[in-house]
């Protein structure tokens, strides 16, 4: 009986280690939060989760060539007039007051989101590798002229590598992601699905899920397998202990 208890304790310890490892793995897979360099005051309270908007771009022939369905949140660091210091603002892109436009070419497609009466212009540029038939978000521009900004804000980065997908498929990520563009700008995406090339009408192609979603699905499988293994080992230990107990009685 003492041996069976030791086996059960060992099994429980192993299971707890497996569950802890799975949770730590999920934490390590999350995209790093944006840098807040040069910020001299605490950021304002973050707004609620942004509403998802659906944005379209049509080519010269009127056919839809890019479609995105996502919630967007901007993290901007700028010089404030009212506070006379550098501050960080977290602002949601509101679909009901945002216009989408852009262009599509054979190897790149752009999505321009204009909001606040053209005071905020956010551009995503996707690039297609025709050799591998893979696309990715390679470029982001943001210009803003808010009343509290001492000077107009402009950031661009042309060497990004986010939202990778395969030609003819849409990229999907249910988990929140942080796309770091510049020390002064990062973009939080929520439940994003985007396809910049080879759309069929107004429908997304089959979705390719991001690594964060795959990791999120993997954890319940690991935990379930660990618990099932624990039950099996405890049951075997119980049966072995019971068999030895009966054998002892027969010897006496």
UniProtKB/TrEMBL annotation:
Q: Where is this region: Disordered?
A: 31-50
Coarse class of the protein's main subcellular location: membrane
Domain Lysosome-associated membrane glycoprotein 2-like luminal residues, every copy: 50-199
Q: Where in the cell is it found?
A: Cell membrane; Cytolytic granule membrane; Late endosome membrane; Lysosome membrane
Specify whether 4Fe-4S is a keyword of the entry.
no
Disulfide pattern: 173-210
Which terms under GO biological process does the entry name?
Answer: establishment of protein localization to organelle
Q: Which residues form the Lysosome-associated membrane glycoprotein 2-like transmembrane domain?
A: 219-250
Q: Which InterPro entries match?
A: Lamp2-like_luminal, Lamp2-like_TM, LAMP_CS, Lysosome-assoc_membr_glycop
For this record, an example GO cellular component is: lysosomal membrane
Is RNA-binding among the key words of this record? no
**Which domain of life does the protein's organism represent?**
Eukaryota
Bilayer topology annotation: Single-pass type I membrane protein
Which ranges does the record mark as transmembrane?
217-240
Q: Which UniProt keywords apply?
A: Cell membrane, Disulfide bond, Endosome, Glycoprotein, Lysosome, Membrane, Signal, Transmembrane, Transmembrane helix
Bias class Low complexity marks the residues at 31-42
Any Pfam family matching the protein? Lamp2-like_luminal
List the signal peptide residues: 1-21
Q: What does the sequence similarity comment in the record state about its family?
A: Belongs to the LAMP family.
| Descriptive protein name | Lysosome-associated membrane glycoprotein 1
């Amino acid at each position: 009986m003492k041996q069976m208890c030791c086996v059960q304790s060992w099994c429980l310890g192993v299971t707890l280690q497996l569950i802890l490892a799975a949770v730590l793995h999920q934490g390590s897979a999350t995209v790093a939060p944006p840098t807040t360099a040069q910020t001299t005051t605490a950021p304002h309270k973050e707004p609620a989760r942004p509403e998802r908007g659906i944005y379209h771009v049509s080519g010269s022939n009127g056919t839809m060539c890019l479609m995105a369905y996502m919630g967007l949140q901007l993290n901007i660091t700028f010089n404030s007039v009212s506070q006379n210091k550098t501050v960080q603002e977290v602002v949601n892109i509101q679909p009901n007051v945002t216009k989408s436009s852009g262009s599509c070419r054979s190897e790149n497609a752009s999505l321009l989101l204009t909001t606040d009466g053209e005071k905020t212009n956010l551009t995503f540029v996707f690039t297609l590798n025709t050799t591998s038939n893979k696309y990715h978000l390679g470029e982001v521009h943001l210009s803003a002229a808010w009343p509290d900004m001492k000077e107009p804000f402009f950031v661009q980065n042309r060497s990004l590598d986010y939202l990778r997908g395969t030609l003819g498929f849409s990229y999907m990520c249910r988990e929140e992601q942080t796309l770091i563009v510049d020390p002064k700008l990062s973009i939080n995406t929520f439940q994003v699905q985007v396809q910049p090339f080879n759309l069929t009408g107004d429908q997304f192609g089959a979705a390719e899920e991001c690594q964060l979603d795959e990791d999120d699905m993997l954890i319940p499988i690991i935990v379930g397998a660990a618990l099932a293994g624990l039950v099996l080992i405890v049951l075997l230990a119980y049966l072995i202990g019971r068999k030895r107990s009966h054998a002892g009685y027969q010897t006496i």
